[in-house]
Amino acid sequence: MIEPHSDSYFMKQALVEANEALSKGEVPIGAVIVCENQIIARGHNLTQTLNDVTAHAEMLAITAAANFLGGKYLLNCTLYVTLEPCQMCGGALFWSQISKIVYGAKDKDRGCINLKTKLHPKTKIIGGILEKESSNIIKRFFIEKRNLN
Question: Which of 17, 20, 26, 58 is catalytic?
């Protein structure tokens, strides 16, 4: 059983968002932003749907959280995202001053860690939470996509 308000609990919620992206034919990445143990924003990839390369799960969740809070800074907030943020999302997270980033699967090619994207000095980052589940949904998506082409 997963305890409420744990990293695993909130990552499961991000996986719900990833499945929503999958149902729309999007790369299945999901995100939630939590403040004081409450989900204040959700997002999933919508790059195909919106025809917008910036419509990553993290970017949409950042915007929703800022609107919820009524300000651009996400102090005392945690982002849970199924895949390590890319350089673009890492830059946006830097400017948001988010307190913590928790990701599921590592992105060895495009992830902000390997690309040495600068995050805010006060931002903590934790990886590998529900890594297998996060990785499997993305792998399954690309296997099915290759088989259709």
Answer: 58
Type of residue at 107: D
Angle at which helices 87-96 and 57-69 cross, to 10°? 10
Taking the chain, what is the end-to-end CA distance rounded to the nearest angstrom?
40
Q: Are 124 and 99 contacting, i.e. CB atoms less than 8 angstroms apart? A: yes
Global confidence as pTM: 0.95
131 is a catalytic site residue: no
Task: Please name the residue ranges forming H helices in 42-130.
Answer: 47-50, 57-69, 87-96
Q: What is the pLDDT of residues 81-121, one digit of tens each?
A: 999 999 999 999 999 999 999 999 999 999 999 999 999 99
Give the angle subtended at the CA of 132 by the CAs of 115 and 94, to the nearest 5°: 30
